[in-house]
Structure formats: structure tokens, C-alpha cells
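FIELD: query
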Amino acid sequence: MTVTVFIRYQLDPFKRAKFEEYSKRWLSIIPKCGGDVLGYWMPHEGTNNIAFGLVSFESLAAYEEYRARLRTDKEAMENFGFAEEHKFILAEERTFLRQVTA
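FIELD: result
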């Protein structure tokens, strides 16, 4: 069963450009570590401090393996460090979803 991780980010609205830079880096890091990036979405109109990311995995076990690989990947660790240094993510929520099929 495919599992999609829906990530909701609360951003510092004055640091959206930093979050976009951070998100773009994940577009190559995540597939390298085993995830299928469905995309990242930035605020456009309306609310200016909420962004989303969606990443799919074959299973929860595959997600756990991916998380372990992230912690040993140089680029991933640098990107986590970038987020901590610039403090543009104020809160992050993860919801694990499965697709409804007929």
C-alpha cells in the first residue's frame, strides 16, 4: 500500500524565499534517498505563511528506511542545517495518507 506524507509548514512570511530554496533542494535529495516527491507548494494568494510538501513511499517501512538514509546523506543534513540556521520554518505537521481506490 502506497503511503503519502502530507507535510504542512508554517513559515515566517518574511522568509518565504529561504523556504523555497530549501524546498528546491529536496526535489533532488528525496528521490536519491528513496522517496517519490509529488511536489512542494508555496503560498501564492491569501494566506502567506503556509506551504505544503507531498512525498510518497511504497509503505511505512519504506518511509522509515528513507528517514534513516536522510540522516546519513550529506546534502540532506546540509539542508536540515540550512533550515535551522535561517529559522524560516516555525512549525511542521506530518499526516500519513493512503489513496482511496475503487
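FIELD: remark
Residues 83 and 89 are 7 Å apart (CA to CA).
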